[in-house]
Design brief:
The chain is built from 5 helices and 6 strands. The protein is α+β, with helices and mostly antiparallel strands and 139 residues long. The strands form 2 sheets. A 3-stranded antiparallel sheet has the order 1-3-2. β4 and β5 form a beta hairpin. α2 packs across α3 and α3 crosses α4. The chain is globular and about 55 Å long.
């Protein structure tokens, strides 16, 4: 059973065939699929699954905190099942490929106190950008 399925079951989430397929599609490392990509892969496993069901299921998983919505620039939102391990993202500026990265150090403490303007910092998002090996080879 996938990590995401185990986490959802542990929360007592009712596991219908449609929800199970969406969770299975999202399972794995470096998974950052759009809702349309999730729907296409889910349809291959369960042809009768509707786009609305996929969107609703993704929304529920995000609300539960089991999946993260990732927005990079003007591209479609992507869904990341790696919600319980702190990480940042590395994004290719050409093709949009996203990889999870785990930099060392604590980004919460990286902002100097004189740059906090009295804020109590609770979270930070860092996105690293560049070219993936495939796009670098074409450049």
């Amino acid at each position: 059973m996938s990590d995401l399925l185990e986490r959802l079951r542990g929360r007592g989430w009712r596991m219908t065939a449609q929800r199970r397929v969406v969770a299975e599609v999202l399972d794995g490392d470096h998974v950052h699929l759009t809702a349309d990509e999730v729907h296409a892969r889910a349809t291959a496993k369960l042809p009768e699954i509707s786009r609305a069901t996929v969107y609703n299921t993704l929304g529920e998983m995000v609300s539960l905190g089991e999946v993260i919505e990732v927005a990079t620039d003007k591209r479609a939102k992507r869904y990341d099942p790696n919600a319980h391990r702190p990480h940042q993202h590395l994004v290719c500026d050409v093709c949009g490929q996203i990889r999870d990265v785990h930099p060392t150090g604590n980004p919460l403490t990286a902002l100097p106190s004189d740059e906090r303007f009295g804020f109590t910092i609770s979270d930070v998002e860092v996105t690293y950008r560049g070219l993936c090996p495939n796009c670098s080879a074409k450049a």
